[in-house]
Each structure stands twice: as C-alpha cells, then as structure tokens.
Design brief:
mainly alpha; Na+/H+ antiporter like fold; 321 residues
C-alpha cells in the first residue's frame, strides 16, 4: 500500500493545489483556458506522441482491448441513461450524466498515473482507452444529447457529426503520429526531440494542476442547487460500477479464450477506476445540459477517487503478485 500511496498522493495533491490556487485567486479565472490550452495542444500531445513512438503498435491497437473496452463503454452509457432518466433528468442531461459515468480522466491523469504505478507498458492499453473514449464514448453521448427527444432516425448522422468534432481534438492525432513513427522506426532530430521531451515532461504536473483549476471553474459556473441524489450516484457509478464492469467483461473474454493478459486487464480496470474527465463539464455547458449536476458529479468523483482508486490499485497489485 505504501508504494501505491507514494504515487497517488502526489498526483491527487497536485489536483488539490490547482483547485485551491484557483479558489484563492492566486490564479485568475481568465488564465485557466490558457493553462488548459497549453496542456491540450502542446504538453499532452507531446507526451502521447513519445509513448506512441516508443511502444509497438500492437500494444496501442490491441483488438481484444478495444472490444472489451467498447462493450463496457456502451453498457455504461445505455445502462446509466436507463438508471438515471426521470422527469427531472431529461434526454440531454441523461446523456451527459452517462458520459460523466463512462468517461474517465485518462488523458490528463490516467496515462501518467498508470505508467508511474505499473511501468511504461501500461501506457499502451491506457492510450487505447483514450482513443475509444474520445472517438466513440464521447461522440455517442453527444449525439444522444443532440437528438434530445427525436426519434432515433437521426442518431447515425449525429454520431458522425460528433466524431468529426472529436477529430478536431489534437490527442488522437498525436497518438497516430506516434504510431506512425513507431512503425517507420523514425526518430526526431536532436533539437526537435529535446523540445518535445521538455513539453512532454511538463504534461503531468501541469495537467494535474489544470484539472483542479477546471474543477473549481466548473463549480463557479454551475447554476442552481443540485440535490445530492442527482449527482452522487453518477460519481459512484463511475468509481465502482465502471471498473467492476470492465473486470467482468475482461474475465469473460479470458474465459472465452481471448488473448488478454492479467496485466492488461488490470490496466483497463484501473483506467476505469479513474474519476470522471473534467472536460465533460465544459461539454455539458456548451450543449446546454445541467452543468451543476455534471460539475458536482465530477468534483465528487475526483475527491472520492483518492480512496477508491487507491484501494482498487492495491487490490490489482496484490492480484498481480
């Protein structure tokens, strides 16, 4: 447990530092979009490019990992919508609630955290989950939110529109460039490689600090009071149901003879045990969903994840021996 806490405490402490810095106005709210832009368009793409270039493409696009994670993501999305849809929670809010429950913070937090816990080989499966969540999970939920109360006839067009929007995100392209470099055996020229490495090294601390600032900002822009019963279940589904479902689907795949190693399954379970992606709050705000509910669910999942993720990581470490 001590070895796990030596990793998780600093990671979550940096998130808390960002939250407190924004709350105390040491960092003005107007600076948060710039900080987020630095991570999203510079630091994080460089980190993902380096991981992608250093790993075999087979580890980044493992078909078994993709199938297990996609099946789980679909079950999470439609299951959460079915469980939470009510007179108070209409179609758009239910769709973004499902995205909150199904989309872990793998980009800003998961890749560096799991690589620190389990070593560089963990980056491959985690990056695969990033691609699935950016291109499939988020696109599906945005499409479901966009269709609102319409019949499902327009869902396919909405999904395609959402996928095109997801492709404007630089992260999938950074991963693709890294895979291309890995396939071709290319290495960046010395000075360029140094610049990329410097930006990549900045990704982890700045991304974690940024998560905290974004969470504070989301709370500031949340309108109205949201009953605990409307947002706490989303956090608990994210932190407990999601990893258990990944474990069940992965175990079933292994029982059916799929080549999925215990190590890879542990990585997927830990990725699912991460708190909700802070970017979901920005999307909810953009699409007119109940951002108060979404923001509070994300904050709750991030706060509770220090305990739940640490315990799940300890159990995974014990299982792996």
């Amino acid at each position: 447990m001590q070895s796990i806490l030596s990793v998780t405490v600093p990671f979550f402490a940096l998130v808390l530092c960002g939250y407190l810095a924004a709350r105390a106005r040491f960092l003005p709210e107007s600076a948060i979009p710039g900080l987020n832009g630095f991570v999203l368009f510079f630091a994080l793409p460089c980190m993902l490019f380096r991981f992608g270039a250093a790993l075999p493409v087979r580890q980044l696009l493992d078909p078994v990992v993709i199938v297990v994670y996609v099946v789980t993501a679909l079950a999470m999305v439609f299951g959460t919508i079915a469980l939470t849809r009510s007179e108070r929670v209409q179609a758009t809010d239910a769709a973004f609630g499902a995205l909150t429950a199904a989309f872990p913070n793998t980009g800003f937090m998961g890749v560096p955290l799991l690589a620190a816990l389990l070593g560089a080989p963990a980056a491959g499966p985690v990056i695969t989950t990033v691609l699935v969540d950016l291109l499939i999970t988020s696109s599906l939920c945005i499409a479901l939110a966009h269709t609102r109360e319409r019949a499902g006839s327009g869902l396919a067009a909405d999904v395609l529109r959402a996928v095109r929007g997801a492709l404007r995100n630089p992260l999938p392209w950074a991963i693709a460039l890294g895979m291309a470099a890995s396939l071709a055996g290319l290495r960046l020229p010395g000075p360029v490689d140094t610049v990329v490495k410097m930006l990549a090294d900045a990704a982890t601390p700045v991304a974690l600090f940024t998560i905290g600032t974004v969470l504070w900002r989301a709370g500031q822009h949340a309108h109205g009071r949201t009953p605990v019963r409307l947002y706490l279940p989303l956090a608990l589904i994210k932190l407990l149901v999601h990893p258990l479902l990944v474990l069940a689907v992965g175990a079933l795949a292994i029982a059916l003879g799929a080549p999925l190693s215990p190590f890879t399954l542990s990585v997927l379970v830990l990725a699912a045990a991460l708190p909700s992606a802070s970017s979901v709050s920005l999307l909810a705000e953009r699409y007119g969903a109940d951002n108060g509910r979404i923001a509070r669910a994300i904050v709750a999942s991030t706060a509770l994840a220090f305990v739940t993720f640490t315990l799940i990581a300890w159990a995974a470490q014990a299982a792996l021996g």
